[in-house]
Design goal:
The protein is rod-shaped, with a radius of gyration of 32 Å. Helix content is about 10%, strand content about 45%. The protein contains two helices and 16 strands. The strands form four sheets. The protein has a five-stranded mixed β-sheet with strand order 2-1-6-3-9. The protein has a four-stranded antiparallel β-sheet with strand order 5-4-7-8, with no helix packed on it. By secondary structure, the protein is mainly beta. It folds into two domains: about 120 residues, no CATH class; about 80 residues, Immunoglobulin-like, CATH 2.60.40.
């Protein structure tokens, strides 16, 4: 497990030229003060693996669910304050927490954000369900009994109201247009599942052309 090492140049430790040193053979269950250099302080930070960690305002580079940070160049007997901030963003739900630790040279501390982050519910975004219709440009369109206000020969409708795994059964798509002052209607009923991408062509006048041709041939 890599250790990020920082040289302290002020009374409040700051991050300067981070270095990655060789990982120990195994991560200790607790902070072992005998493994900490006399002029250093060690922070072991437990976080979700996808979290970002900031030490005294500076972003760190370590990854994983257990991260080790070594601050070097501390003066013996002097107390230093470390502000550790954890930030994680999952599907737009952000968790941001801070812990403050005071250490002297040769000391170490374990800081855990794991329990706090796990207690935050992860809200999954509903999938986008899309219906694309090819209709007469002047047609009126109803979806599940609701009139729509869009226009044009190609119309696209999207919703995130369906959660993953849900479906609308018997979903009616109705298209109406006027021919010679008379309203012609065509409808189609489908089952619409979350995340579906449906493309349909609905033209109330399509059958009229065939009927006109048939009438002409009879005459």
């Amino acid at each position: 497990m890599p250790v990020e090492a920082y040289r302290t140049i002020e009374s409040t430790p700051t991050v300067v030229d981070p270095e990655v040193v060789a990982p120990p053979a195994a991560a200790p269950a607790a902070v072992d003060s005998t493994a900490i250099p006399a002029d250093s302080a060690l922070l072991i930070v437990e976080v979700p693996a996808d979290a970002k960690v900031f030490v005294n305002g500076a972003a760190t580079k370590a990854t994983g669910d257990v991260r080790r940070y070594l601050s070097r160049g501390l003066v013996a007997g002097k107390e230093y304050e470390f502000v550790v901030r954890m930030a994680v963003d999952r599907d737009g739900e952000a968790t941001d927490e801070t812990r403050v630790v005071s250490l002297t040279a040769g000391e170490g501390s374990r800081v855990s954000f794991a329990a706090a982050a796990q207690s935050q519910p992860v809200v999954k975004k509903a999938p986008t369900t899309t219906v694309t219709l090819h209709v007469p440009a002047d047609a009126k369109v109803w979806l599940a009994g609701n009139a729509t206000g869009s226009t044009g020969a190609t119309r696209q409708f999207e919703t995130t109201m369906l959660a993953a795994g849900q479906a609308w059964k018997g979903y009616e798509i109705r298209v109406a247009t006027k021919i010679d002052g008379r309203e012609q209607i065509v409808s189609k009923v489908i089952d619409l599942a979350a995340g579906d991408t449906v493309e349909l062509s609905l033209d109330p006048t399509a059958g009229l052309a065939s009927l006109a041709d048939a009438t002409a041939s009879v005459r």
